[in-house]
Amino acid sequence: MSTPTSDAARMAEFYGQLDLQGMAPLWESLHTLVPKSPTTPVQVAHWDYDNVVRPRLMEAGRLITAKQAERRVLILENPGLRGKASITHSLYAGLQLILPGEVAPAHRHTQCALRFIVEGNGAYTAVAGERTTMHPGDFVLTPNWTWHDHGNDSKEPMVWLDGLDIPLVQFLDAGFAETGDTDSQSLSRPEGDASARYAGNLLPIDWKPDTKNSPVLNYPYVRTRESLETVSRNGEVDAFHGHKLRYVNPATGGSPMPTIGTFIQMLPAGFQSRWYRSTDSTVYSVVEGTGESTIGGRKITWKPRDIFVAPSWAWQEHCSEGGAILFSFSDRPVQQALGLWREERSVD
Ligand code: 1HN
User: CB of 165 closer than 6 A to ligand 1?
Assistant: First the structure.
């Protein structure tokens, strides 16, 4: 009759053999592999722009040119994902600096990118043959595989938040990239063309989208803000989100890019949200105002240009005494396309 020790020894030997032969026993990891609810490595995170990020970014501006760097960016790494260039499990974020007179040379890749302008005025991004001049709060797209380059003909530094689906594309092993022959791509349309064609609640009569991306190049903050202002004057405030709108691809009504959903919300003065959670880890960028968020039990006090992260399925609440505007992005469209996305509103 076998003793418990010899059972354990036999099991250990069996596991050792499995390991050598490229196998593993499911019963040791079943509940980790199939958790009852999301168990993300993503942590609550907060970057203080004025006191921490900006000084480092300006230091980078003294140490390396945009051209040398190709992109002069400080990556925001989630503390739970250090070394992985990820702000959430599926998304990358960084802050990019371009100084007066600099160019960031043309390239293209299969990763989708968004820019959300944080400071400066008048630098441009050229995407697929058209330039757009950027201002704080503008949300600018660089859909996958489109040529893009940036330049700053203004007299001030410009900084924007880059959001890309790099970790997702890496996970899928579907990354391709090319460098342009010239620093600045040649332009085929005048500035404002995409906006006139696609962003005025009109579409060219025979136009059919040939990609999964919005044809709108720039969702300018002046218009976004006007919408928020009007909506907040006329409508009831949502107890969980304040006044929250999502950016759309006018051709589909879906997200502007297939892998990244983008949102803007106004918290009216004195607003205190109720508790909410969703499965899409979300990156917030503070546009205007100050406030506090409690996320996964951690309190964050934020101010304009700060960035913070709410992990998947962590309870969150947001409040602002003087009123605030928050931009946010996440992988929500991916989760929705796969039937995975869930949200929950507290009922108490
Ligand atoms: C990229 O193309 C940009 O075009 C910024 O500004 C950041 C990070 C990784 C890969 C490509 C840009 C990037 C990037």
Answer: no
Test site for ligand 1: of 164, 170, 179, 185, most ligand atoms within 8 A of the Cβ: 164
pLDDT tens-digit map of 14-52: 999 999 999 999 999 999 999 999 999 999 999 999 999
How close is the Cα of 164 to the center of ligand 1, in Å? 8
Helix (H, G, I), strand (E, B) or coil at 172: coil
Q: Domain coordinates of the chain in residue numbers?
A: 37-345
pTM over 0.90: yes
Q: Please tell me whether residue 85 adopts helix, strand or coil conformation.
A: coil
Q: Which amino acid is at 119?
A: E
Please name which of 203, 167, 182, 148 lies closest in space to residue 91, comparing C-alpha atoms.
167
Question: Sheet harboring 139-142: ordered strands across?
Answer: 73-75, 92-98, 158-164, 113-119, 139-142, 218-219
What does pLDDT average to over the chain? Answer: 97
Task: Report CA(71)–ligand 1 centroid distance (Å).
Answer: 6
Strand partners, 159: 97, 119
CATH 2.60.120.10 fits 37-345, yes or no: yes
